[in-house]
Amino acid sequence: MSDRGARIVWMLVLCIGLTSVYSQDYYSHVRPIIIENCFPCHASGGIGLIPLTTYAEVSSYAAMIAQVTQERYMPPWLPESTSKELVSERVLDDEDLILLNDWLKNGLKIGQPQIQMDSMTLAAAHDQKEQDLIVLPVSNGFEHYGVYYEQYQNFLLSYDTDYDVYIDSIALVPGDSSIVRSVRVATIKDTMAPIALDEWDPREGYYHFGSVGIDTESSIWYTWQPDQEGRISPPGTSWVLKKGHRLLVHIVYGPSLKAKSDSTHLILRRGPRTSQTLCTEKIIDRSDLLSDPFPIPSGKTAILYAVDTLSERKVLRSIYIHGQLYSRKWEVFIKSANGEAIELLKILDYDLHRNEEYHLRQPLTLEAGATIHVRAHYDNTEKNPYSPSNGKGDLLHGYGMFKEIFTVEFGLICD
Ligand code: HEC
Fold first, then answer.
1. Residues 188-239: tens digit of each pLDDT
2. Minimal CA–CA distance to 374: which of 352, 398, 344?
3. 38, 44, 94, best to mutate for ligand 1 pocket (most atoms within 8 Å of CB)
4. Ligand 1: which of 33, 49, 54, 182 to mutate, judged by most atoms within 8 Å of the beta carbon?
5. Is 410 exposed, middle or buried (0-12, 13-18, 19+ CB in 10 A)?
6. If one looks up domain 130-274 in CATH, what number appears?
7. What 3-state DSSP class applies to 96?
8. Does the beta carbon of 46 sit less than 6 angstroms from any atom of ligand 1?
């Protein structure tokens, strides 16, 4: 290229660079942000209630979008940026916020549709032989009566084995994605208790606020959220469905104005036998509290603090906080055996409805002697925006709308 040619190319690049700052348009700038950060919760029928799939939809909500993103209410992401690096952090950067705002101020330009299709890549293991896949119906047409509050329903799956089954991928296909808000899959030894619980609930499965209603004695495998794809076990590890164990699936249904029915499916892929397995140990709970504040008196707040010392080496890969409507702040940190402090997860505005399992980008090995610290702030006053009792009545420990628990589960890589 001649010098002159090169100069022209540079000028063009500059012009494009400059104009793009002043003329954001829907197709080139706004839509990619929406697709990456707001789908599929806001695709049609998603749990986000308002669809954000077309120019007409996005532009009609533009002011609201600018506001909820500015306030960092959307996309939902609770951990503070000081937390350890987590998988799929859903945080818009400042440039995105400015862009959304400028697009609104400058008249919601539409632009040209892109030529290539923006495919929402659902990582389906199509190349797998069918016999490796175990497809399990979960909710079998569960009837959602069309009520404007969340429902917590549990399903015992009839998959029983005479031998250990090694699983290397888990995926969930929600039946009606406008109501399925989150799903937890656990394995259990005891099948009698859930069968008994099932009997008194006329619908599919059984209702239990916030949990599976029994002590699972075993591990939580997987927590699914609407914008999550299937999970593949890290190399050399797998989930194991032990002989005689069953699967129990806990689904949180969001509110709906209309009655609906849901048939969600769980898909497991058989993998090779591995020596390391993924397990969850409920490491920190009420029994680890340094002082127990329950019942928390009406109109009072309390800080709960628990410390657990590891007696053996553990490899940590995920954290799941299990507070309900009264807990507002959570801080989980580690002091390693050689005294180093590591902040794992910090949430300053906890919200049960946006809770999820947080996966560390890199598994963290903790040697024996390391301590895990959990500090939580509970608010039993009328200032707590989520409190169902407005600070009236003493707060007891336990599952239930008007109770509160203190549990943090750590996903581990076990031998
Ligand atoms: C993980 C799922 C999820 C993601 C991702 C998500 N939303 Fe939402 N959004 C919701 C849910 C659920 C609601 C319904 C209201 C609620 O629960 O607060 C909602 C509500 C909204 C509302 C209505 C707010 C109101 O006050 O009623 C807007 C606007 C919105 N979202 C915009 C966005 C935008 C823009 C993005 C991406 C930058 C996004 N959301 C990403 C789940 C999500």
1. 887 778 888 888 888 899 988 877 777 665 577 888 888 777 788 888 899 9
2. 344
3. 38
4. 49
5. buried
6. 2.60.120.310
7. helix
8. no
In short, whether 327's Cβ falls inside 6 Å of ligand 1 is: no
Q: What is the pLDDT of residues 296-325, one digit of tens each?
A: 999 999 999 999 999 999 999 999 998 999
Provide the residue ranges of all domains of the chain, joining segments of one domain with +. 3-105, 130-274, 279-414
Tokens of 36: 């990456």
Q: What's the number of CA atoms in the CB half-sphere (13 Å) around residue 228?
A: 23
Q: Please name the fold of domain 279-414.
A: Jelly Rolls (2.60.120)
Do you know the residue count of the chain? 415
Query: Is 130-274's fold the same as 279-414's?
Result: yes
**Cα 25 to ligand 1 centre (Å):** 21
The reply to whether ligand 1 has any atom less than 6 angstroms from the CB of 58 is: no
Q: pTM of the entire structure? A: 0.78
Q: Are 144 and 233 in contact (CB under 8 A)?
A: no
- With a 6 Å cutoff on the Cβ, whether 356 touches ligand 1 is no
Please tell me if the CB atom of residue 212 comes closer than 6 angstroms to any atom of ligand 1: no
Please report, to the nearest 10 degrees, the dihedral formed by the alpha carbons of residues 263, 51, 79, 83 taken in order: 100
